[in-house]
Amino acid sequence: MCKEVYAGVNNSVMSTVGKSTNIVWYECKIGKHERQQLLKQKGCVVWITGLSGSGKSTVACALSRELYARGYLAYVLDGDNLRHGLNRDLSFSAEDRSENIRRVGEVAKLFADAGVICIASLISPYRSERDACRALVPDSFIEVFMDMPLELCEARDPKGLYKLARAGKIKGFTGIDDPYEAPLNCELVIQLKNGECSSPSSMAEQIIMYLDEKGFLKA
Amino acid sequence: MCKEVYAGVNNSVMSTVGKSTNIVWYECKIGKHERQQLLKQKGCVVWITGLSGSGKSTVACALSRELYARGYLAYVLDGDNLRHGLNRDLSFSAEDRSENIRRVGEVAKLFADAGVICIASLISPYRSERDACRALVPDSFIEVFMDMPLELCEARDPKGLYKLARAGKIKGFTGIDDPYEAPLNCELVIQLKNGECSSPSSMAEQIIMYLDEKGFLKA
Questions:
Q1: Interface predicted TM-score (ipTM) of this complex, two decimals
Q2: Which residue of chain B is at minimal alpha-carbon distance from A101?
Q3: Is residue A104 part of a domain?
């Protein structure tokens, strides 16, 4: 029987581990660089933050669509959707909301490492939590702030949550009785122009121009 | 100001939500199918299970390398590595080992949905836990059993863990004082041939042939 694990000459390193000598270790040479070459893009995290109803999911989807149309691989991590899977053990307590964001940040890091343009769409109201996610991928974190007025978000109220929060039926709702800490120094801000919303496509275009300028759309 | 979120004609649906009428909802048309077309492959989960020292990581890396050489995008989720990130809040208690596997299964599902060939490498000793991961991606879960004799794994002992377990310094170690439940009906079994190990490349080749036969290597 074979005590050593054999690898091709170009993929093996001889090393000493503990009291064993000359165990052949298998070195995995396919890393982020190689995957980026394959995809002709750079893995990164586009982190879209903002109030409920500010248009995060809309922009995430539009960005995913526009990138696909150009031949790039993107994947959307949606805070709400993940609560049906990876984060289904978490409640909406302060501690669990924080753990929710931590996990999404860690998964986004894995996608970026896989070479994918990962689009994370979460309210993520606290600076410290967003900054912790940024620290996981410091060179490839693009924070996009959906800077929409609370009144607009509340007027939209796509999930009816503001109404519930105003009625006191939801406690600790961001923008109502829990703070949203706007980014101080994010990569992109998406705002109204002359009081009007841009189309999802043009908001996505704004992000794509940034990705292009910073070299994420080539290997 | 704009109460509705506008989307291109081909990407919008009119709907009524709560008491609001005719809110334009943005429908994200880029799904798994489109990503698979882009990558010319099908997203799936190759779940490699077996004792510590059975060669899971080695095969995972070889498979990643061989797929890359053929132009396919794969990504390895390694149980040990994830414990430094996503699962760093988890101990090695029975409950936390189970949660570790659940999370890896959920993340693997996301990667498969992204169109990636996700290679998960974990001891994952219990059938029920592997089956729960399978249930997340029932049509694209390829369970690969590293069917290596305990004596071989223990002789290799790449991390020195068997020695610690035999000395009673690690409790509940799979294969020593905790059971490994071999798969009953997995997609692939990797075994010794005439008492000899195959090379990592040829073990990877065995998996690639399966992926090819089942249509995962085309969109």
A1: 0.89
A2: B86
A3: yes
